[in-house]
Amino acid sequence: MSHETDTPSTSTDIGAFCRAVEAHLCRVNGGHLVRIVGPAFELVAGWAREGMPLRVALHGVDRTVARLTAKGPRRRPIRIEFCEADVRDAAEQWRRAVGVRAAASAPPAGSPTEEAAEPSSARLPSLPKHLERVLLRLSALGATSDLSPALAAAIAATIRDVDACLDTSRGARREARTALLERLIVIDGQLTEAALAALSALERRELLDQVQRELSPFRGQMPPAAFRDAEHALLGELARRHFSLPQVRLDG
After folding, report:
1. Cβ distance 54 to 20 under 8 Å?
2. 173-182 tens-digit pLDDT
3. Count of alpha carbons within 13 Å of 125, Cβ hemisphere only?
4. How far is it, in rounded angstroms, from Cα 60 to Cα 3?
5. Model confidence, pTM
6. CA-CA distance, 225 to 231, in Å (whole number)?
7. Chain segment 207-230, per-residue pLDDT in tens
8. Do residues 80 and 48 touch, judged by C-beta distance below 8 A?
9. 3-class SS at 51?
10. Rg of the chain in Å (alpha carbons)
11. What's the distance, CA 107 to chain centroid?
């Protein structure tokens, strides 16, 4: 097996990745500069070497900031080490959604856990609460956004389907819950396909370029058919995010 196959970072500028994370950390800390050097640099460089997309790493940082800010005012800026659990959680969700594996996912020994040992997935929402949030976001989007008639119709159909699932989700256990989760996967796929169909030619091209950037580190690790599936899955995720559509399925 070639070195390029073993090392996703061959197409990643590690220095640029670390600088982008440092700049983002500065912004979310209200302009307070928190340098990414020494062990912190090695931590973030490790994310880049794994092929973690930059936007996913930044999303993980945002999760930590939102969670810690919700606890009240902070006297000290948030260090990148405290974001590791949320960053890895966000990356794992991305990998599951797209269907790729990490080159290495174990956190380095001795990494700080003082405030980071609470990744957001540690308390997954209940199925009814998840569906209520999906309905709220879809209803707000349908009421305020200038959508194509086809996408607006798809959103309306999704609202009806999710509302029906909500009625049966309360108290659903074992087989009934599993059946609901499988139904949500189907509904999520239908909404995602509607989002893909609603993209303009330019929007689709831009998202395809982003797909290539994010998945290129993994091309040598995956069979061609699996890589094509990953491309389609990531394109669908990006199309859904482009229109601010919520994820209907419930992972985990």
Report:
1. yes
2. 888 888 889 9
3. 13
4. 29
5. 0.71
6. 10
7. 999 999 899 888 888 889 999 999
8. no
9. coil
10. 19
11. 19
